């Protein structure tokens, strides 16, 4: 049984309380992590605060040299990290390793981008202040709370932690319960990289038990959260002055506007909808298409869905068990509601506990829950809508606004439609996706607040410090 501990001030914490992590594939314990209490969590913030000024005083290249040892330790242990991840979130081994290597790419790019966070220099001439030269550099905000979701326990954590650290902040990191083994493993990498005491702290414990304590500490200067709308709104509702970046849920639509490359469209839609069993915020979660094109497109989509392998992470199956049985019950409920209201199941609608076959549902209508709710599972609804204007209207009616896809070979039409869709980003002729990670990544409406992406994260975790020279 893997036993990983919380990490505070470079010490592994064992308070005798444990949080068991269940392997979604075996439904048996994958391991356990420390279940911290309030007093432990407050120690993490004290450690982060005490370490921050000295960490920020280091030169950028000194911080990078220390963080590069962390990066090198990731590569050294990449297979073990991938195995732990696959055991605790049922991501197949290939995708788990891909997540680890993608994270190293993010780290390397972050180091380079940090070197180019040049100060802003301005004269006052434009406002009649002739003898004033302003230099505005970006400096650390202080103590950053990073909270990550279960579905990218390594990538979406370090995509916050590394930008925070490289700019001189210190970090308190809360991994998702399902993801805590992967998160706590980062402490071993930090020790291997000779991190200075207190710059990086891992607080483990079930969110519903310790979440309020973690997000209420007065030492927090900024929170970077990725997770569900419900939790994100709980954090937002605290109304503290703390700066927030929230990356929340999604209900990404795919609008299919012509039939000029249906094989490509179907391939993008299926990989976009069913990657990691649909447990991606940017998964395609609804398809809008008119009847005439649907009669040709849907059979092609069905052909692709039927080919998706179903099994275990060790088998590198495309479809693996969803995170837990509570989630699979919710997903099944959406499918059942659609069926009861007249939708047509073309494939799937089959499960063994939390292993759910990819499910393709045609003739979904706006009165069905599946048209609006985020399943976060392997189900794809087709909504047959016979006008582009109606597609845009339904796409925008969602409370979510993360991403969208527009499939259309006429680029003018595609751009004009994209400009009308209320999301952070619209992908033309590809599935919706966060990458490449150097791009800004944002959601609007219930899908988030603020912006991620490498440069945007460096900006959101720093503030201006102005020095004005009068001469
Ligand atoms: P979640 O249940 O909201 O949990 C997210 C994180 O918040 C976890 O670390 C969780 O810890 C923690 N948490 C729970 N209660 C908390 C509280 N009261 N205060 C502070 N933190 C608390 O989301 P998830 O199930 O991990 O991920 C699925 C959701 O996240 C989906 O809606 C998905 O769309 C969204 N998501 C969005 C993005 C994006 O980039 N926009 C990326 C990935 C996922 P515990 O696990 O211990 O509860
Ligand atoms: O749900 C995780 C979100 O960040 C999507 O990432 O790379 O799968 O589009 P990606």
UniProtKB/TrEMBL annotation:
<feature type="active site">
    <location>
        <position position="247"/>
    </location>
</feature>
<dbReference type="InterPro" id="IPR051020">
    <property type="entry name" value="ALDH-related_metabolic_enz"/>
</dbReference>
<keyword id="KW-0521">NADP</keyword>
<dbReference type="Pfam" id="PF00171">
    <property type="entry name" value="Aldedh"/>
</dbReference>
<dbReference type="GO" id="GO:0008911">
    <property type="term" value="F:lactaldehyde dehydrogenase (NAD+) activity"/>
</dbReference>
<dbReference type="InterPro" id="IPR016163">
    <property type="entry name" value="Ald_DH_C"/>
</dbReference>
<dbReference type="InterPro" id="IPR016161">
    <property type="entry name" value="Ald_DH/histidinol_DH"/>
</dbReference>
<comment type="similarity">
    <text>Belongs to the aldehyde dehydrogenase family.</text>
</comment>
<dbReference type="InterPro" id="IPR016160">
    <property type="entry name" value="Ald_DH_CS_CYS"/>
</dbReference>
<dbReference type="InterPro" id="IPR029510">
    <property type="entry name" value="Ald_DH_CS_GLU"/>
</dbReference>
<dbReference type="InterPro" id="IPR016162">
    <property type="entry name" value="Ald_DH_N"/>
</dbReference>
<dbReference type="InterPro" id="IPR015590">
    <property type="entry name" value="Aldehyde_DH_dom"/>
</dbReference>
<keyword id="KW-0560">Oxidoreductase</keyword>
<feature type="domain" description="Aldehyde dehydrogenase">
    <location>
        <begin position="17"/>
        <end position="465"/>
    </location>
</feature>
<protein>
    <submittedName>
        <fullName>Glyceraldehyde-3-phosphate dehydrogenase</fullName>
    </submittedName>
</protein>
């Amino acid at each position: 049984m893997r036993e990983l501990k919380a990490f505070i001030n470079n010490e592994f914490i064992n308070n005798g309380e444990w949080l068991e992590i269940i392997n979604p594939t075996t439904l048996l314990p994958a391991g356990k992590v420390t279940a911290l209490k309030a007093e432990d969590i407050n120690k993490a913030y004290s450690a982060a605060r005490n370490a921050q000024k000295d960490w920020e005083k280091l030169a950028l290249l000194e911080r990078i040299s220390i963080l590069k040892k962390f990066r090198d330790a990731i590569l050294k242990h990449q297979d073990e990290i991938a195995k732990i991840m696959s055991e605790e979130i049922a991501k197949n081994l290939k995708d788990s390793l891909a997540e680890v290597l993608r994270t190293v790419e993010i780290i390397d790019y972050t180091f380079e981008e940090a070197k180019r966070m040049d100060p802003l220099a301005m004269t006052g001439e434009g406002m009649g202040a002739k003898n004033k030269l302003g230099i505005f550099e970006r400096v650390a905000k202080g103590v950053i709370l990073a909270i990550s979701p279960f579905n990218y326990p390594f990538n979406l954590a370090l995509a916050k932690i590394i930008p925070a650290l490289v700019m001189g902040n210190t970090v308190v990191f809360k991994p998702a319960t399902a993801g805590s083994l992967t998160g706590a493993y980062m402490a071993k990498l930090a020790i291997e990289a000779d991190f200075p005491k207190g710059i990086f702290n891992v607080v483990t414990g079930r969110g519903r038990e310790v979440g309020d304590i973690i997000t209420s500490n007065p030492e927090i200067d900024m929170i970077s959260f990725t997770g569900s709308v419900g939790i994100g709104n709980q954090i937002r509702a605290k109304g503290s002055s703390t700066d927030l970046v929230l990356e929340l849920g999604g209900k990404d639509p795919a609008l299919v506007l012509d039939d000029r490359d249906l094989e490509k469209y179907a391939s993008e839609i299926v990989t976009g909808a069913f990657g990691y069993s649909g447990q991606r915020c940017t998964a395609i979660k609804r398809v809008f298409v008119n009847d005439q094109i649907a009669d040709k497109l849907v059979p092609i989509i069905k052909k692709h869905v039927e080919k998706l392998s179903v099994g275990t992470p060790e088998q590198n199956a495309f479809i693996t068990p969803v995170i837990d049985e509570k989630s699979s019950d919710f997903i099944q409920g959406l499918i059942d509601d659609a069926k009861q209201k007249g939708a047509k199941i073309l494939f799937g609608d089959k499960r063994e506990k939390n292993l759910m076959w990819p499910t393709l549902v045609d003739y979904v209508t706006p009165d069905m829950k599946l048209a609006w709710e985020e399943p976060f599972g392997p189900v794809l609804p087709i909504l047959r809508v016979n006008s582009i204007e109606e597609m845009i209207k339904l796409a925008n009616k969602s409370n979510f606004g993360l991403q969208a896809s527009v499939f259309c070979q006429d680029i003018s039409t595609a751009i004009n439609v994209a400009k009308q869709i209320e999301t952070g980003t619209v992908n033309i002729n590809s599935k919706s996706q966060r990458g490449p990670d150097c791009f800004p990544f944002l959601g609007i409406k219930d899908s988030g607040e603020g912006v991620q992406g490498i440069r945007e994260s460096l900006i959101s975790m720093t503030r201006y410090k102005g020095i004005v020279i009068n001469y």
